[in-house]
Amino acid sequence: MPLLSHLGPWAWFVLGGVLLVAEIAAPGAFLLWLGLAALVTGAIAYTVALAWQVEVLVFAALAVVAVLVGRRVTPAPGKASDRPFLNRRPEGFVGRVFTLDAPILGGVGRVRIDDTVWRVEGPDVAAGRDVRVTGADGATLKVEPVEG
């Protein structure tokens, strides 16, 4: 490994930087941990004179530890979120009942939910009546009147 011995600890800093940039280019939260292991290996090699073979072993051990720690720190893919409608807010309104802010005329009206006015579509209903959200199409809520 003449390049590794020639550059010394800087080879690890360069490798760590390349791996971190590669993580940005192709995110998957895997190269991040290898990049951090390479940077730590570079820091160790900078402070303690080690043979390149030992440096490679240190990197391998740190990479395994970093990946294991990374798996504990990051959430598992497909794990249920505690906020399932975070980026799908209209879908979170399905099944709920709201009072119309403006009448539904020609199939289109408005409802105020918290501090936001939402467009609704459904059968014609007077303002002030309660409607149940049955679905969402983008930022438009599909509603039906609540009986009684």
From TrEMBL:
It is found in: Membrane. Residues 91-145 form the NfeD-like C-terminal domain. GO terms for cellular component: plasma membrane. The chain crosses the membrane at residues 12-37, 43-69. Coiled coil: none annotated. Keywords: Membrane, Transmembrane, Transmembrane helix. The keyword Membrane applies. The keyword Aminoacyl-tRNA synthetase does not apply. Pfam families: NfeD. InterPro entries: Membrane_assoc_protease, NA-bd_OB-fold, NfeD-like_C. It is a multi-pass membrane protein. PANTHER family: INNER MEMBRANE PROTEIN YBBJ. This is Membrane protein.
